[in-house]
Amino acid sequence: MRSRRRRRSLLVMALSCALAVLAAGPTAAAGTGDADRSGGLGAEVVRLYEEASLATQRYEAGRREAEEQRGRAQRLERLLDRERRDIAVLQEDLGRIARAQYRSGGGLPHTAQMLLADSPEELMRGQRALWRADLTVDNAVTRNRRAGSRLAADESKAEAAWQALERRNDELAGIKRGIERKLEEAQGTLQEQADASAAAGACRGPVRLDQPETTFTQPWIPPVETYGLSAGFGSGGERWANRHTGQDFAVDIGTPVRAVGRGRVVKVSCGGPYGIEVVVRHASGYYTQYAHLAAVTVEQGERVSTGQWVGQSGTTGNSTGPHLHFEVRLTPQAGSGVDPREWLAERGVEL
Fold first, then answer.
1. pLDDT tens column, 237-262
2. Confidence band, pLDDT 50/70/90 cuts, at residue 34
3. Which of residues 7 and 328 earns the better pLDDT score?
4. For a surface tag, which of 78, 169, 250, 302 has the fewest beta carbons within 10 Å of its beta carbon?
């Protein structure tokens, strides 16, 4: 009996362990999947940014080319109109010469003109002069007609090329709109995930993006590559309890955010007024903060180089729209900020 009870208890323990493993298995897998989806989504946003930028460049280049080709067609049309007017003037001149010849005896037979002339030499000189004038006008009309024909052919080619460019630009515009729609959808999903992380106060972990192969010769750079400046340091308004403590950069969701200089990541945080944020300590003793992010690409304690991506911009925390909130501090904590524009300007970076 004792042996049988022991076997039963061992069986119960084995079944309990098996159930525990089965219960834990899906949770771990789901967690891994969320991290993969987050990382893949951040990379997808960056890829779509690049595709949208390339599509925009192609569209703009095609639009400029089409405008140049259209201008060429219009110039040729003006030249052709001028040639038509020149031909008309020459034809009028030829008509006037013919009418003058008729009035001066051009309607008489050639024999009668010779009889009425003071001398045969005088008659021949007059006839040669009229013949040369007629020939000159005829040659000019012929040349202008040939030039007009060439211009008409060139104009037709230029207009056909312009219309072909317009059709190609319509296709490029459609591709551009399609990429932008995909980018907008990916940005929305990335921001939803970021909002969930910020609300939970737990970061998903770093998104490992393919860093650009760029070596900066200068030690300090702006935190984003392309931007518009919005709220500056010390600004007042209803959005802040006190004065604004940093410099805002107006950028879209998912824009790569760069370390302005070499340093070490001392803080990665999700939640609170700054939302998702990264703080970097630099060798000079200053700290830079990158806040309201949609994703981070670094871990606490990691060393970063100038220009390395530390996150992707977003609108988490107390934010009214997509932007990067950038601060320069004397300490890691808020409240010790200095003017970022002046600080960067002292290091050769003009915003």
1. 555 445 778 999 999 999 999 999 99
2. very low
3. 328
4. 78
Whether 273 contacts 318, CB under 8 Å: yes
AA identity, residue 285: G
Structure confidence at residue 8 (pLDDT) = 44
Average pLDDT of 280-301?
A: 95
* Cα 164 from Cα 178, distance rounded (Å): 21
Interatomic CA distance for residues 204 and 115, integer angstroms = 116
pLDDT at 104: 58
- Return the exposure string of 138-161: e unless at least 16 CB atoms fall within 10 Å of the residue's CB, then b: eebbeebeebbeebeebbeebbeb
| Residue 165 to residue 162: CA distance in whole angstroms | 5
State pTM to two decimals: 0.63
Alpha-carbon span 282 to 137, nearest angstrom: 85
DSSP string, 273-288: TT-EEEEEE-TTS-EE
**What are the backbone dihedrals phi and psi of residue 262, each rounded to the nearest 5 degrees, phi first?**
-65, 150
Q: What is the dihedral of CA 95, 98, 103, 109, to 10 degrees?
A: -150
Q: What is the rounded CA–CA span in Å between residue 69 and residue 79?
A: 15
What distance in Å separates the CA atoms of residue 50 and residue 41, rounded to the nearest whole number?
A: 14
**Angstrom distances, CA of residue 244 to CA of 98, 202, 237, 335, 345:** 89, 26, 8, 10, 19
